[in-house]
Specification:
about 45% helix; two-stranded antiparallel ribbon; mainly alpha; about 5% strand
């Protein structure tokens, strides 16, 4: 049975709205209706996002995602205080439910089990564990110079902690993609599918990834923009059909040039299924000091070989490019990686170790060495992978050479 919920939708600006009937596909419980009506009054922006979502059309409400065990550590105390205001719909005793602000992949898995399972295997889900691993902290970490306001955890995530029913400052709010949640799950779906619209179109656009994958160290957004693929997106992306379903979202139909999502997540009709494990199609680890294969990456090893991963990514490329062109692209990538590993990283490491002390060498040498791999070496390798000449050479190997000469 369907139900009509009246939604107040912004039309032209603040204070101007129109009423629209939102037909949902199932009968809603009184508690769910109370959530909708209360948030329509108290957090209208949140409500309007939800009202425009596929969740709303399917009858998935606040109640479905935010419901919590009565004795759970993340039950919101401020929300219970709101119940004391009897003039709100939630003030009626039958509508008073324990809710949590911390919606986790385990909650999303109730409706999206495959996506949650795939995500749990990704380096996104493992990014906090990777950051905390001995691989980085025992060997390659930069000396601690961060302040409390500038933390890797903003992207990698935190371990979300609660004390006396309230979240601990510094661990929440946090939408880090690899956060560790109180229910034992890892990660968050909302960095890509932002609350409360949870839009496919939004997650498919490369700007969704730019929140974390940009700047001097993780410059994939800038590299993409400086590539031919990015140029086509900038010119033509406004006309693409971003909201199509997975089977219809295909090269030449939904989009003309790949984005981050179409390469790393989307499927290819008849050949490749969608996969929310964004690292499943990687055949090199390009962020590491020495380029290695994903199955060799000890903090989060891939469950299959790099050849299998590469074959899947090549399947994506073959939607638009000939087999010979795709194979030669990967040959060029492998050559660039070998040059970085052998000519720059290994020789630079020998130089630093040659002058080793407790701090791995003189301060200037350590800074040049870290710059060589942590910034310029990453840009060179990622520029090769994403077909951006500017980052492959000008911001990559050219700067690697300068850093290397300082060590010599």
């Amino acid at each position: 049975m369907s139900l009509i919920v009246t939604a107040a939708l912004a039309r032209e600006g603040p204070g101007i709205s129109q009423q629209r009937d939102l037909r949902v596909s199932r009968q809603l419980a009184s508690q769910a209706l109370a959530c909708i009506e209360c948030h329509r009054q108290t957090t209208s922006g949140l409500f309007l996002d939800w009202a425009a979502s596929a969740h709303a059309r399917a009858g998935v409400t606040c109640h479905d995602c935010h419901i919590s065990d009565e004795v759970g550590p993340t039950v919101s105390r401020p929300h219970f205080e709101q119940y004391e205001h009897s003039y709100l719909p939630g003030g009626i005793p039958i509508n008073r439910l324990p809710v949590t602000a911390v919606v986790t992949p385990k909650a999303c898995a109730r409706c999206h089990p495959d996506q949650a399972r795939q995500f749990s295997k990704s380096k996104h889900a493992g990014s906090l564990q990777i950051l905390s691993s001995e691989y980085w902290n025992g060997s390659w970490s930069w000396p601690e110079i961060e302040g409390e306001a500038h933390r890797c955890a903003d992207c990698h995530g935190t371990e979300v902690k609660f004390l006396n029913g309230a979240p601990v400052t510094g661990t929440w709010p946090n939408s880090g993609v690899g956060r560790v949640n109180p229910d034992g799950s890892r990660g968050s779906c909302t960095p890509c599918h932002t609350r409360h619209r949870f839009s496919k179109a939004e997650a498919r656009k490369p700007e969704a990834c730019a929140k974390c994958h940009s700047g001097p160290v993780y410059s994939q957004w800038e590299i993409y923009k400086a590539s031919k693929h990015g140029g086509i997106y900038a010119t033509d992306g406004g006309r693409w059909q971003w909201d199509l379903g997975p089977l219809a979202w295909q090269a030449g139909a939904g989009y003309r040039s790949p984005t981050c999502a179409s390469c790393h997540i989307s499927g290819v009709r008849g050949s490749l299924l969608t996969n929310h494990n964004v690292s499943a199609r990687l055949s090199w680890e390009l962020q590491t000091p020495l380029s290695i294969r994903p199955e060799e990456f000890s903090p989060w090893p891939a469950s299959r070989t790099w050849l299998e991963a590469r074959q899947e990514m090549m399947t994506v490329c073959l939607q638009c490019h000939g087999k010979g062109s795709v194979e030669r692209h990967y040959q060029r990538l492998d050559i660039a990686v070998a040059e970085y590993n052998t000519v720059y990283f290994r020789m630079a490491l020998l130089r630093v170790k040659d002058k080793s002390s407790v701090a791995l060498g003189e301060e200037e040498d350590v800074a040049s060495f870290v710059d060589l791999w942590h910034r310029h070496g990453r840009l060179a390798r990622m520029g090769a992978a994403m077909m951006s000449p500017e980052f492959l050479w000008q911001r990559g190997f050219y700067e690697c050479k300068k850093a290397f000469l300082k060590l010599r």
